[in-house]
């Protein structure tokens, strides 16, 4: 199948053909590690994790890079407020990010470059930009001169003058033009800094990604992805400095941007008090349910978050895992990715359609009989795998409950054994009392031809 992707740069859906099929390159903007991320920040790693899985089916030698920004003024402020070294903040929250997205079923990238490990590359790129007259030094700063790059604004599709007028840009006397952006800025003794030809300082935000992408993926990459909020100025500035540093070569051939999350129809913001940290959500809800919720809308569209939607995600997984639980007696066979699921994802990563196909596969597996149950199970597990879903043991899913609300499985089994004995002795009052006791613990039981099965109710 041909993979088609909507390219923000061209504003149309295009067939994806890599520069080099033997080494496909993708770069996704990662976190600035000064705090836990909110649930909206989790959408890019989840969405583009699915894209990476799809790409690997077609191009096994994908090189997927997702960076860590570990030098930034927000980090400096967080470290100062806590009275700790910068590295204590960045180390803690970088690991928290890895741990939390892993609980969403996100696989690690092939490359995870850190900005502070690429200072030499950043300085070298800035030197090239100065030499080619695209950047200039002023009062310890180095700035990119936007007017030197006529194509500036092509990604966001707006006139450069309008972009600059509508942006929150620092108007400083050392700038040639108000829209010029910082590549390097000075650091005093209270701030992290590195020696450079322009004095002790630290890199600006935008130059980091250009230098790290060049170092690990090359001058021109196949796919650059991130949230739509990064289109301007971050990605616009990345294009300008990368193209100019590479003598006019294209920076990224495909630009993909995911839509933002809203909360009950309103934008998530600290001022509204509706920012939900992923770290806290994972203490209360299964990571797989959060992943499903993040995939239920098309990645390019806004996605509304609600408690009802999360509950529905849990119930959907209950249904699908219930089918797999009923097929526990079916001999294991190699999972098969159904064509319909793959076709949906090849169509600009249409996860809503892929999930609809998965639901149909679950219905078909529920109705299957005889030898057809083997193929039905393989298709359901294989389709789920491409979406990063349904890879747990079904019994583990039903018995895990919500995080932090573990149930003593041995105790449950002991009560069920007592209930079986009571039923055998026709002591139905005791049998019902045990059912009620389990219900009070959040455990439901189901009597079937295969015996009694139990589940922990999830919120």
Automatic annotation (TrEMBL):
Subcellular localization(s) per the UniProt record: Cytoplasm
Main location: cytoplasm
InterPro entries per the UniProt record, alphabetical: Cys-tRNA-ligase, Cys-tRNA-synt_Ia_DALR, Cys-tRNA/MSH_ligase, CysS_C, Rossmann-like_a/b/a_fold, tRNA-synt_1_cat_dom, tRNAsynth_Ia_anticodon-bd
Residue ranges occupied by any Cysteinyl-tRNA synthetase class Ia DALR domain in the UniProt entry: 340-398
Ranges spanned by the short sequence motif 'HIGH' region, renumbered to the chain: 31-41
Domain of life, per lineage: Bacteria
Listed EC numbers: 6.1.1.16
GO biological process: one example: cysteinyl-tRNA aminoacylation
Motif extent ('KMSKS' region): 267-271
UniProt keyword Ligase, yes or no: yes
Catalytic activity: tRNA(Cys) + L-cysteine + ATP = L-cysteinyl-tRNA(Cys) + AMP + diphosphate
Binding site for ATP: 270
Binding site for Zn(2+): 29, 209, 234, 238
Family annotation (Gene3D superfamilies): Cysteine-tRNA ligase, C-terminal anti-codon recognition domain, HUPs
Cofactor: Zn(2+)
Cofactor note: Binds 1 zinc ion per subunit.
Record HAMAP family: Cys_tRNA_synth
Description of how the protein assembles with itself and partners: Monomer.
Protein name: Cysteine--tRNA ligase
Organism: Luteibacter pinisoli
Lineage summary: Bacteria, Pseudomonadati, Pseudomonadota, Gammaproteobacteria, Lysobacterales
């Amino acid at each position: 199948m041909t993979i088609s992707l909507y390219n923000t740069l061209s504003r149309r859906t295009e067939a994806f053909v890599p520069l080099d099929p033997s080494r496909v390159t993708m770069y996704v903007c990662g976190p600035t590690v000064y705090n836990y991320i909110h649930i909206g920040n989790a959408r890019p790693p989840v969405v583009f994790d699915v894209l990476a899985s799809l790409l690997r089916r077609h191009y096994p030698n994908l090189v997927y890079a997702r960076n860590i920004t570990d030098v930034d003024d927000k980090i400096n402020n967080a470290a100062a407020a806590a009275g700790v070294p910068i590295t204590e903040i960045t180390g803690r929250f970088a690991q928290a990010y890895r741990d939390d997205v892993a609980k969403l079923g996100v696989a690690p990238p092939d490359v995870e470059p850190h900005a502070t490990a690429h200072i030499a590359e950043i300085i070298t790129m800035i030197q090239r930009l100065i030499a080619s007259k695209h950047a200039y030094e002023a009062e310890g700063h180095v700035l990119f001169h936007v007017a030197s790059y006529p194509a500036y604004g092509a990604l966001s599709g707006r006139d450069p003058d309008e972009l600059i007028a509508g942006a929150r840009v620092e108007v400083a006397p050392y700038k040639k033009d108000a829209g010029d952006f910082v590549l390097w800025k000075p650091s005093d003794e209270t701030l992290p800094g590195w020696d450079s030809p322009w004095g002790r300082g630290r890199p600006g935000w935008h130059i980091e990604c250009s230098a790290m992408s060049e170092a690990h993926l090359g001058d021109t990459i196949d796919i650059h992805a991130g949230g739509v909020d990064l289109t301007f100025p971050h990605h616009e500035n990345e294009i300008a400095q990368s193209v100019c540093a590479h003598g006019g070569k294209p920076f990224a051939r495909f630009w993909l941007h995911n839509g933002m999350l809203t909360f009950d129809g309103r934008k998530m913001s600290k001022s509204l008090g509706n920012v939900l940290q992923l770290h806290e959500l994972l203490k209360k809800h299964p990571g797989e349910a959060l992943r499903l919720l993040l995939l239920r809308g098309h990645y390019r569209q806004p996605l509304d978050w609600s408690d009802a939607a999360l509950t529905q995600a849990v119930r959907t997984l209950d249904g699908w895992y219930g089918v797999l639980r009923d097929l526990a007696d079916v001999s294991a066979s190699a999972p098969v990715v159904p064509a319909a699921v793959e076709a949906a994802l090849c169509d600009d990563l249409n996860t809503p359609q892929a999930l609809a196909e998965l639901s149909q596969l679950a219905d078909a597996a529920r109705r299957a009989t005889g030898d057809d149950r083997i193929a039905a199970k393989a298709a359901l597990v294989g389709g789920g795998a491409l979406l990063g879903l349904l890879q747990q043991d079904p019994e583990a899913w039903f018995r895990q409950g919500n995080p932090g609300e573990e149930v003593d499985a041995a105790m449950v089994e002991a009560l069920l054994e007592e209930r079986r004995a009571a039923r055998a002795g026709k002591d139905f009052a005791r049998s019902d009392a045990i059912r009620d006791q389990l219900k009070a613990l959040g455990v439901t039981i189901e009597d079937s031809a295969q015996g009694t099965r139990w589940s922990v109710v999830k919120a």
